[in-house]
Each structure stands twice: as C-alpha cells, then as structure tokens.
Amino acid sequence: DISIVGYYAKETMPNIQQVFVRVVKEENIDDIERELYICRKLIERAVKSETWGNELYFCSLSNQTIVYKGTLRSEVLGNFYLDLKSDIYKSPFAIYHRRYSTNTSPRWPLAQPMRLLGHNGEINTIQGNLNWMRSREASLKLPVWRGRENEIRPFGNPKASDSANLDSTAELLIRSGRSAEEALMILVPEAYKNHPTLMIKYPEVVDFYNYYKGQMEAWDGPALLLFSDGKTVGACLDRNGLRPARYWRTIDNVVYVASEVGVLPMDESKVVMKGRLGPGMMISVDLTSGQVYENTEVKKQVALSNPYGKWVNENMRSLRPVNFLSATVMDNEGILRHQQ
C-alpha cells in the first residue's frame, strides 16, 4: 500500500516484486538454500555491467526466511506489506529491527534486518575485515560447493554497509555448512583469553576460539546481533558489550529479546526466566524442538562438535622471535611502502 510512504522515501522507492521459485527435485533444505544462494550471486554478478546494476537488490532468496524492508516509520511496516496483515500468514519467529542510520545515508536496500542478521551498532574494524575476506577469496575451497566456488565470489562489497558485509560473511559460513551459532562465534568471538570461567570450566570453548583466531579475525563492534537461518533464532553481543540486550521467556514458551525493557507488552506473571546478555554472550532457540539454550550451553554445544583442542595441538607451530636489526636498511619512504 504505497499511500502510507513518506515523501522522500517515495522519491527513491524501488519497484518491489515477490518472486516464487519452484524447486523441481526435493533435496534437503541446506542444498536448496545453497542453490538459491549461488543463483542470487550469479544474478548479482550478471547485472553489474548494466547501468542499473547497483539498483537491483534481493531482500531474501530462501526457502526458510522472508525479509521485509523499507524506508518507513516503524508502525507502518505492517500496513505497507499487506502480507503482514493476513491471518493465514504465520511464522514461529520474527526479527524486527528499526534503526536510524548513522554512518550510511538511509536507503531502501540498507534498511534492517539484512538477510540473516539484524545489527544494532557498527563494525569498527570493517576496512580490515573486508581486506582479509578479499585475501581469502582465491583459496577458499569446500566439498559442499562442488567446485562452484567461483560462482559465489566476491564475498565482500566495499560499497555496502558494515552490517551488510557482516551479514554476507555470516551467510557464506552458514551456506558452507555451519550452524548460525557457530558462524556468529567465529565472526564475533568473546574476550576468551584469561577468562577465568572458560579456562577452568569450559576449556573446549577456548580451544574453539584458538582454532579459529588464525582463520577469521574478529568483526569488532559495538554490536548487538539478532540472527536466524530459519532453523534457529538467537542473539549475541560482541566482546565490548556496549549495546543493551534483555531477554524473557514466558510460561507459554515464547522467548523475547529486545534492546530495552518494556518494548513489548508482557504479562509479568507469565515470565519464567529473564536476564540480559553481557559482553560476548549468546542465547538461541531451536525452532524445531523449541529448546532454549543460554550462553554456556550454546558455546559448549558448538565447541564439542569437533576436536578443536586436538587439532590446535597437532597443527599449531610456534615461531620463535628473533632480534631486530640494530639499524634500518632502507630509507623511511621505502619502509613505509613495504609496511603498507
């Protein structure tokens, strides 16, 4: 319903279409998602050469989730997309994110949530993260892609926002076969070094972080991230913990996570669990079993899925430091060039 869109938003409003893709052969969910991911990547690459190439945007192309976006006032989202008013349209979860753009000017494609994440905050290390992702592009290989890795490159997009790039990296990890929780632990690790509880009670979690620190540098916030791949839904806070996140669980098995208390009307007498996420913490819900996992349960489950400690011990090689030269052998300009 276009009548409710504001003046400036209407000026830049894209042509919005909802496309249905028929899956011919019944494969497992992950294979279908991977095929749709490759399909989207190929379309995005094909239109790059067109003058309108950067104006095409897929909010989602998935058989698990649907994303609705808009440069709209919060309360009118459900009036703009008529699907959201329909009684026959049901979902076991919803991630809803209203944000005021700070470091990017508001545009329809940049409205949150992204394809898998809703992100409150910013990624301060974005330039380094993008460079590292670019440096990995040539070497990334994995059997699940069946030799089609070329079709999903590039992984990052310097023109997109920090949230969009974090989202596309999480998407790459999840489509490569990782769970959403594992992908987020790799990308946004907690401050695990000399962490008294982890070192003593959960050394396997420290092993997990040690294993991945050489493969993926932290995407550093402040960041509160809500995520879902359609199978689980969860929230995590980066290690700086500078964004608020509260959670509640009610007797009728509904879990709420919000940035503030009082965002959603709630009957206090029904609340059976409440808490807040601290720095580096996570909460997740398995949508099939209805099981709720708090921080240490999530971390333990992910960390025990592989023998990370064994892998680190068997494959890590330490380099002994050597003394620096007492004097420089190049002029300052030459040194700077090499360092850069």
What is the fold-level CATH name, i.e. the topology?
Glutamine Phosphoribosylpyrophosphate, subunit 1, domain 1
- Helical segment count: 12
Q: Please give the alpha-carbon distance between the first and last residues.
A: 52 Å
- The protein's oligomeric status is single chain
Task: Please report which band the strand proportion falls in: under 5%, 5-15%, 15-25%, 25-35%, 35-45% or over 45%.
Answer: 5-15%
Largest β-sheet summary: 5 strands, antiparallel
Secondary-structure map:
Elements lengths: L6 H5 L17 H19 L29 H4 L36 E5 L4 H11 L12 H4 L9 H14 L4 H8 L8 H6 L1 H11 L9 E6 L3 E6 L8 E5 L4 E4 L12 E6 L5 E5 L5 E2 L1 H9 L4 H8 L16 H8 L1
Antiparallel strand pairs: 1-2, 2-3, 3-7, 4-5, 4-6, 7-8
Helix pairs in contact: 6-7, 9-10, 9-11
Quick take:
This protein is an alpha+beta fold. Helices cover 31% and strands 11% of the residues.
Features:
alpha+beta, Glutamine Phosphoribosylpyrophosphate, subunit 1, domain 1, five-stranded antiparallel β-sheet, 8 strands, 11% strand, globular, glutamine amidotransferase, GATase_2_dom, iron-sulfur, glutamate synthase (ferredoxin) activity
Structure commentary:
The protein has 340 residues and is an alpha+beta fold. The protein has a single domain, classed as Glutamine Phosphoribosylpyrophosphate, subunit 1, domain 1 (4-Layer Sandwich), CATH 3.60.20.10. It has helices spanning 7-11, 29-47, 77-80, 126-136, 149-152, 162-175, 180-187, 196-201, 203-213, 295-303, 308-315, 332-339, and strands spanning 117-121, 223-228, 232-237, 246-250, 255-258, 271-276, 282-286, 292-293. The strands form 2 sheets. It has a 5-stranded antiparallel beta sheet with strand order 1-2-3-7-8. A 3-stranded antiparallel beta sheet has the order 5-4-6, with no helix packed on it. A hairpin with a 5-residue loop joins strand 7 and strand 8. Helix 6 (162-175) crosses helix 7 (180-187) and helix 9 (203-213) packs across helix 11 (308-315). The longest helix has 19 residues, at 29-47. The radius of gyration is 22 Å and the shape is globular. The mean pLDDT is 92.
